[in-house]
Amino acid sequence: MRLLARAGLPVTLPDLDPATFRAALGHDKKIRQGQLRMVLPESLGRVRLVPISIEEIAAVVENGAAAEG
To answer: How many domains, in total, are found in the chain?
Structure first.
């Protein structure tokens, strides 16, 4: 986090309305059948697609926002 902050990048979540966030996430092109396909790098030139549900993402964001407040 310190490295991100030193680079001038955001390290906290903006105030998010959970319903608005979920609605916006539903329009992401990587969403299929209620699952977001996260693209995670494994090594140089290799990635892995990992499915994660919209509910899981929303819970992480909501819990993170609550922890910051």
So the answer is: 1
- Is the residue at 1 inside a domain? no
pTM for the complete prediction? Answer: 0.52
What is the full DSSP assignment across the chain?
Answer: -HHHHHTT---SPPP--HHHHHHHHTT-TTEETTEEEEEEEEETTEEEEEEEEHHHHHHHHHHHHHHH-
Sequence-ordered list of residues with C-beta below 8 angstroms from that of 8, at least 6 positions apart, any chain: none
Q: Is residue 20 one of the residues assigned to a domain?
A: yes
Q: What is the pLDDT of residues 22-56, one digit of tens each?
A: 787 777 777 777 788 888 999 999 999 999 888 88
Q: How many residues does the chain have?
A: 69
Domain region containing 53: 15-68
